[in-house]
Design goal:
By secondary structure, the chain is of the alpha/beta class. The chain folds into 3 domains: 191 residues, Rossmann fold (3-Layer(aba) Sandwich); 231 residues, no CATH class; 136 residues, 3-Layer(aba) Sandwich (D-Maltodextrin-Binding Protein, domain 2), CATH 3.40.190. The strands form 5 sheets. Strands 5-6-7-3-8-9 form a 6-stranded mixed beta sheet, sandwiched between helices. A 4-stranded mixed beta sheet has the order 15-12-16-17, sandwiched between helices. Helix 13 crosses helix 21. The relative contact order is 0.09. The structure holds adenosine-5'-triphosphate. The site of adenosine-5'-triphosphate (ATP) has 11 residues, from helix 4.
């Protein structure tokens, strides 16, 4: 093989055939725009790297108008990267790309936009679309009339043997999805059609039909086609093929001519020869040979397609190409109109897509609507209420009883001239312990009670001494003259298990509180001055109540964090799914702007957030009757703004994360510390001063305070304690949003 190749393939021809091997062009081949107009795609010295890895190495490529160009190469050689750069999906490091006479992205180039039909390697369609939806979606994005889309849909449906109109894409096979994807790229009859492996998984008969169609549109409509495929021999039907390896084009020529030059029967063999040659480093040798136009390496090739009379020979078709391209452009001039940042048709198509994606995902809807209700219900029912039925060991040495059968309050505190006579008041005190928080458990002595604590059977031991009543009476009678030992014996002693601080503290304060009531009642029976038994510190309450549960304190934080998290999760999941499926990229190539994508996602998700906020507020305030004092619309607004802020945060996460698992990690990894710092569970005032300022700068700390100020204090929007919280929400919403848009623009 190599022998016959050497015989026929002279060095000069080889030199002419291969081009672009590192010699820098002295000047651009074209000094006027009209030259580029002859090419559908013109790539010069293109370099694209991912990190330090160079994928495209000064690659040059020329695709004349009205031809089928087959781009061949092994997996990973950079074909998809090259196509992505051509359609403007990816930025490149250096070099030049002209598409249909303009540079992608430049105003008036029409690219991205309807001039190009792009079928990416991945399906890049919405799974919730029906077959018809998918084609119509792109038709509408391209601004086509409904009647025209309908007519095109019928034609493509027949041509590509598409499944029934109403079959959902997610229920189609891979091959069927690929055909729908092809139909979506063809619907608007683009001037340039770029397809990344369109025939994978397609039946050979249908594959043949697709190729026939490609030949037909290049011939009749002067469409230019770039197609990549793994089936090398399939490309015999192309007018020109580019053999790509390791980020470079080894050759670019018509298949017939390649076979002739290399004297082989198959393109596989041509590729093999050229690949070996590249391996041996002999391709670089050709730079020393004379070339047809040494002013520019990209111009060096056997058969330049420069004029209207050049005929391209392929094994399947011989066709005249390059005719009347200028006329075609004139009729399609409106496609070159500078792209509007916001176009009504595209916004409508995107809204329709988002809505279908939303309502056809029943599991998603159930989750989005029930999850906030479940969360707030669980919170109200499970968090912040008083502890109940905590077992407390009672050792009453006075009566050896906890319930004191036949006990009667009467006669336990009887006033007389100089004082008050007590009787059996240990039993009287024990009646005050009949409280939902406490479950009394009788123990015979302190030691066994303490054993009970150590074994976890009880949360503490309460002890009253033998003759507790007598010592208590002495304490009252003698006042400051009481002896220390008597004073000690008049005390109720308690040993608590404080390893569970919440329970330990709750029981401790409850016992003190119950004792206060007990003492007040006894002193009242003794006809002492009212208030004698009270602490001499009289605390009254301006906002809230003494017995407000912790639930009331945590409710604002809970509402806000639930909505922030829901907004963040919903947005990041939706956008990453769209981006991962390639729908975002594909829509962008079709002309959709980032603003339109962002805006339409925002509108739908804001509507969902509105419903979610209504649900959590109804659940908290109407169903669970949580108390509030302020204006309900203001409570609603503050929570809603945090939902929007969460959406913006989710948007930012979706931009910096490459996939769902990374997004979830970032989402929760940042959200959890924010939740700990926001004062939801513990006041920020308990933090070290530096940390407190940091905590207050976070998205929802001050909003939680604002919501508490409205719901508990009834403050109005004019109060800084309210509007500051709203300003912080707004600030973070804008910050996350702007940073995300900036990253989208720079990250490609
Ligand atoms: N986003 C990315 N970050 C880093 N490397 C990437 C990225 N995308 C592609 N690559 C690498 O670039 C190289 C070329 O990938 P590309 O997808 O362009 O190849 P290809 O020729 O289209 O392969 P295939 O035929 O299998 O689709 C591969 O080594 C790939 O791993």
């Amino acid at each position: 093989m190599e022998k016959s190749y050497s015989r026929i393939f002279s060095t000069v021809e080889f030199t002419k055939l291969c081009w672009c091997f590192g010699r820098k062009a002295k000047r651009s081949p074209f000094h006027s725009g009209s030259m580029w107009d002859n090419y559908a795609v013109y790539v010069e010295d293109l370099v694209k790297s991912y990190g330090s890895k160079e994928i495209l190495k000064k690659l040059c490529m020329k695709v004349e108008r009205g031809i089928i160009y087959g781009l061949l190469g092994a997996s990973g050689c950079g074909k998809t990267t090259l196509l992505s750069c051509i359609v403007g999906r990816k930025r490149f490091n250096s070099g030049e790309i002209w598409v249909l006479g303009g540079k992608p992205g430049e105003p008036g180039s029409g690219i991205p936009g309807p001039r190009v039909g792009y079928m990416p390697q991945d399906i890049a369609l919405v799974g919730e679309f029906t077959i018809k939806d998918a084609v119509y979606y792109f038709g509408r994005i391209f601004g086509l009339e409904e009647s025209y889309i309908s007519q095109r849909y019928q034609t493509l449906h027949t041509l590509l043997e598409l499944p029934p109109d109403d079959r959902f894409l997610k229920n189609c096979s891979g091959g069927q999805q690929r055909r729908v994807s092809l139909a979506a790229a063809l619907v608007h009859q683009p001037e340039l059609l770029i397809m990344d492996e369109p025939t994978v998984g397609v039946d050979p008969v249908l594959r043949d039909r697709i190729w026939e169609h490609l030949v037909e549109i290049t011939r009749k409509e002067n469409t230019s086609v770039i197609i990549t495929t793994h089936y090398i021999e399939e490309c015999r039907q192309a007018n020109k093929i580019g053999l790509m390896r390791e980020g470079r084009l080894l050759a670019e020529e018509s298949p017939g001519r390649l076979l002739q030059i290399f004297d082989t029967d198959t393109l596989e063999e041509v590729f093999l020869i050229l690949s070996k040659r590249q391996e041996e480093g002999r391709l670089d040798d050709i730079s020393s040979y004379p070339v047809a136009d040494d002013q520019n390496n990209c111009m060096v090739e056997m058969m330049p397609y420069t004029g209207s009379t050049v005929s391209v020979t392929s094994t399947v078709a011989t066709m005249e190409i390059g005719h009347g391209s200028q006329d075609i452009l004139t009729t399609k001039d409106k496609r070159r109109m500078p792209r509007k940042r916001l176009d009504g048709n595209r916004v409508k198509a995107l809204m329709d897509k988002n809505w279908k994606q939303f309502y056809r995902n029943v599991t998603g809807i159930i989750f989005l609507l029930t999850f906030p209700i479940i969360q707030i219900s669980v919170f109200v029912k499970a968090v912040g209420d008083d502890v109940k039925s905590i077992p407390l060991a009672i050792v009453n040495d006075e009566t050896m009883a906890t319930s004191c059968p036949n006990f009667d309050f009467k006669g336990t505190a009887v006033p007389y001239d100089d004082g008050c006579h007590f009787s059996n008041i240990s039993c009287r005190f024990l009646t005050y312990l009949d409280h939902p928080m406490i479950h009394k458990v009788k123990y015979d002595d302190v030691e066994s009670g303490k054993q009970g604590v150590m074994r976890g059977h009880v949360a503490g031991v309460l002890y009253m001494s033998n003759n507790f009543t007598a010592y208590a009476e002495k304490r009252v009678d003698k006042g400051k003259d009481i002896e220390e030992e008597d004073l000690e014996l008049s005390e109720i002693k308690v040993w608590m298990d404080m390893s569970n601080r919440q329970i330990g503290q709750a029981i401790k304060y409850k016992l003190i509180d119950l004792y206060r009531h007990f003492q007040e009642d006894i002193f009242s029976d003794c006809k002492f001055l009212p208030g004698f038994a009270k602490y001499p510190v009289n605390v009254d309450f301006y906002y809230g109540h003494e017995d407000d549960t912790f639930t009331i304190y945590m409710l604002p934080g809970s509402l806000i964090t639930i909505m922030f998290f829901m907004g963040a999760m919903m947005t990041s999941q939706t956008i990453i799914t769209d981006r991962h499926d390639g729908v975002w990229d594909r829509s962008t190539v079709a002309g959709v702007t980032s603003l339109e994508i962002t805006l339409t996602h925002f509108l739908l998700q804001a509507a969902v957030t509105l419903v979610q906020v209504s649900l959590v507020i109804i659940t908290a305030f109407a169903v669970f009757q949580m108390e509030y004092n302020g204006q309900m619309w203001l409570i609603f607004l503050i929570v809603f703004m945090q939902g929007i802020c969460g959406m913006s945060y989710g948007f930012w996460v979706s931009v910096i994360a490459s996939d769902h698992s990374m997004a979830n990690t970032i989402l929760t990894g940042i959200f959890l510390p924010m939740m700990l710092l926001c004062g939801l569970m513990w006041p920020t005032e308990a933090m070290p001063i530096g940390l407190r300022y940091f905590a207050r700068s976070l998205p929802f700390t001050i909003s939680i305070e604002a919501l508490r100020n409205v719901s508990k204090k009834g403050w109005l929007i004019t109060n800084p304690g309210v509007y500051n919280g709203m300003c912080v929400s707004l600030f973070w919403t804008l910050l996350f949003g702007l940073v995300s848009v900036y990253l989208i623009k720079t990250k490609r």
